[in-house]
Amino acid sequence: MVEIDDADVDEYVTEITKGQSNWIRLVVWVSRLAEPDGSPAGSSTAAHRIIVHDSAGLRAEYGSTMDAYDAFRRMEVTLKDVDWSELRIVADRDGQHDIEVLTDQPLRPEEDSGSDPYWDQVHDYLELNRTEMDALVERLRASGDLPGEAAPTEQRRGVLGYFRRDG
Which domain holds residue 122? Predict the structure, then answer.
């Protein structure tokens, strides 16, 4: 089994979610690509979604591709001595994460890799995993780490409040 250090995962997550202060889950799939003859190509493709929560609720975003690109390349370097086909990382705001390095999946064809319907699982992650995402929102809310919700504020009386008070 291939191990990826937790510190490396934290670094990838920080880099990819940079600029997304309301993120609650990051989903990253990196896949090695195949030449037409089935041999590994010299490239890979990656799909990622950043699930964010704000006052309007949940939404899925892509984030900065440039920030993500460097992290994706470092992930590949980590796996340079492994005959891998796909790397999947699902990381939550509270530090929980799941990492899978798949070695038994067929390589994705290099041609038309950007429009491969296989990636719809990542692109449509929020819709396909709504129940799980709602549970994550509740878990983060219970821990006090749910972004995008206004903290309860004390009622302030102020000068105008003084004149409006009863009695």
Answer: 6-164
1 inside domain: no
* 97 occurs within a structural domain: yes
157, 165 Cβ separation under 8 angstroms: yes
Query: Tens place of pLDDT for every residue, the chain, 167 residues?
Result: 567 888 888 999 999 998 899 999 999 999 999 999 989 888 888 889 999 999 889 999 987 777 788 888 888 888 888 899 999 999 999 999 999 999 999 999 988 887 888 889 999 999 999 999 999 999 999 999 999 875 554 444 444 444 444 44
Quickly tell me which residue has 């070695």 as its tokens. 103
